[in-house]
Structure formats: C-alpha cells, structure tokens
Amino acid sequence: MKRSATFSKEYVRASWSLPEPTLAYFPNARFAHSDRDQGAGTVGLTVTPAAAASDGTGGGVAVADDSCLGRDAFGQSDFGHVPVLRSRCVELLTPALTRHHPDGTKAVLLDATIGAGGHAERFLDELPGLRLIGLDRDPSALDIARTRLARFADRVTLIHTRYDAIAVALAELGYAPVESVDAVLFDLGVSSMQLDRVERGFAYAHDAPLDMRMDPASPVTAADIVNTYDEAALVDILRRYGEERFARRIAAHIVRQRAETPFTSTAQLVDLLYRAIPAPARRTGGHPAKRTFQALRIAVNDELGSLRSALPAALDALVVGGRIVVLAYQSLEDRIVKRMFADAVASGTPAGLPVELPGHGPRFRSLTHGAERADDAEMEHNRRSAAVRLRALQRVEHKGDPHNHATGKGHS
After folding, report:
1. Is residue 153 assigned to a domain?
2. Single GO molecular-function term (predicted)?
3. Averages of pLDDT over each 10 residues, the chain, 412 residues
4. Residue 243, class by beta-carbon neighbours within 10 Å (0-12 exposed, 13-18 middle, 19+ buried)?
C-alpha cells in the first residue's frame, strides 16, 4: 500500500541572500530555517491510496514574514501556511454542509487539495458533525495535514492521489461518483510549503535538483523535459504554460547548452535564463525565471490536464444543493474554471424557444459575480492572496433526467 512519506534529511542552509528580483516577486519573503519537517507524520489519520496511479525541506528557505506565521484568529497553528480566503470559503460552502443538521452531521466535504489542511481545519472546527475527505498528490503535504488534523481523526480520511482521480477516490470509500458529496473545495497551484522545500526544485531562488514533481513518485522531472524534449516541444511548453514571449530564444539556448552539459540543477537553468532573456526585459515583470519555472512545473505535473478532468468529476459528485469553490492563482487555471463554470450554468434548451425544455435547464447557478478577489485586509495579512480568483457554484438540478438521480453513501 502506498503511503505518504516524510523528508527527514538535513539540508544545508543556502549561504546567499535572496536577490532583489525574487524579493519583488515574493515581497513578503525572508530567509529562515523551515519547520515543515519537524514532527511531520507523527500522528496517524486514515491514509489510503487511490486505485488509479498518481502521476506519477529543511534548510534555508523563503517563507512568509512573521505576520503570516504563528496562529490564526482561532488560536490554531497555520503551520507556516496561511489559507487564502478561508472565511469566504466557509461562508460559501457552509449552507450546503448544514442542510441536514446545523453541525454538519451527514454532510461530506471533499477537499480536493488538502495541502497543509488550513481550510479543512476551519470547517472541522466549526462543524463538529462534518465528514471530510482530503486528497493530495504530495505525500509530504499529507504528512502535515495528518498532524494538523489529528484531533479530528475519526472524521477525516486522507487519500494520496491527484484530484483528477476524484471518482476513483470516492468509489474506494464507498461513495457514488454522482451526487454523493455536499461540497467540494479546490485550492489550486503550488503551495508555499512546496516552495519552502528547497530540494523539490520549485523555487528559482535556491540551487536545487531540477525536479518540480508534486508527487516524488511521478516519472517525469523538469530535468527530463529540459534535457530530452526537442526544441519545438520546449517552445510550445514555454509559450502555452508560461506565456513566455522569449520562448524560442530560451529553447534554443537550452538545446545548445545541454549538448555540452545536461541540466541537473535549478541554478543552471536560472543562469541560462539570465543569458537568454534580453537585459531590458529582465529589468521588468519580476524574476526572469518565473515564467519558465511555472511552465515546467505545469508540464511536469500535468496541472491543466488534471484540472480539466477533475472539474467535471467534482461537479458530477455534488448532490442537488451542493456547492463548489475553486481558488485559482494564475490566468491559465482561471480560464479553465471560468469556461467550465460558464458551461455548467448554461441552459441546454435551444435558443429561441419560449420555455425551458424539461431536463435541459441549467444544472448549476453561480454564487459569485465573476471572479472574487481578496480585499485589502486579506492581502495585508496574506500576500499570496493578491493573485487569487475565487469562483463558486451551487447545483440546482440533477444530471440527465430531473426526476431520476443517484443516491450516494450518507444521503437518504
């Protein structure tokens, strides 16, 4: 059985300070030892593998400043990671979770990106009858969530899987893939915990193996892509996933350099990017490596493909009256969410007919007017929230025949 793992190896703290471009891109960054490894995995919750295979950091790290560490308004440890728009997520999803009982009894929340468990902890605290299923492809994140949510162990199940395996994960627990959960939460993108783990290779501020896998068991690393993909494929990845206007120059530089020395570290790639991107362009728009690193990370983890598969499955899994909230942090993700949500709230009745055809009405209604943004108070407390786009839907109709629907586990 596949279990989540804990990193215990000590890493040497980097001897250099964070460069100014990095501080511009992460304005609340500072240099400190990470505490993410300490105590991880010491308390056990239920952790099960999904039947489908997953696609398959101590030391000096950039972490949030002191205002973003410590404890939240409820006196709970944030484990160095402040959940974005946590109160708004609770406000939007609680009506769906309290339909049966005010304390959440009989309700199921699927947290498709459990991460450090910050959102989950708030829901479990406020709804003592709630049942929570947490998914994550990153085993170290599951270790942290297991520790953080230990006091709710009898109400929490954690599963090591990608979120595009939602249907498989639910089936493994005895839930139907259609109309079986009351609420779903997605908090997309790379987490500050993953950026903090230097050896994972997500951050360009530190020299580390060129890895970028969210699940260390996944077969393809960023080094594999950089060293083996042809020039056209590299250009496509950089343009499509990084929206990098110098994609062709960067790809050409990569192909020339790897012919002499294969890429093994983030520092090698960052050095190449400084040489490939013209000096005037390096002076604006943040760190010159940010688009390339984003593109490689998305490609390594198939983030957009996973999202395209996961959202329909999540919408299908909601009961009538159930709700979904998605937090996206970059335009590529948000475009997918926006498009799929627009389709979900659209009528299937042909245009021009005077009445809605039975079984062709919208299956969902929007709970937000477009994408919601963090307010000034949230951004002051949590700088990561500046980029967030929140969208939410509620299910109002059954799938297919409006008089015939599946009944999932826990619902009568």
Report:
1. yes
2. rRNA (cytosine-N4-)-methyltransferase activity
3. 33 34 35 31 42 35 35 47 90 97 97 95 98 95 95 97 96 96 94 68 85 92 97 98 96 98 96 94 86 95 96 98 96 97 89 78 94 93 90 87 45 42
4. middle
Residue stretches of the annotated binding site for S-adenosyl-L-methionine: 117-119, 136, 163, 187, 194
- Quick one: DSSP state of residue 113? T
Final residue of a domain: which of 278, 300, 322?
300
Strands 181-187 and 60-63: unpaired
CATH number, residue 329: 3.40.50.150
Is the distance from CB of 410 to CB of 106 less than 8 angstroms? yes
Question: Residue positions in the annotated binding site?
Answer: 117-119, 136, 163, 187, 194
DSSP one-letter code for 150:
G
Q: Name the domain count of the chain.
A: 2
pTM of the model: 0.78
Residue 1 in any domain: the answer is no
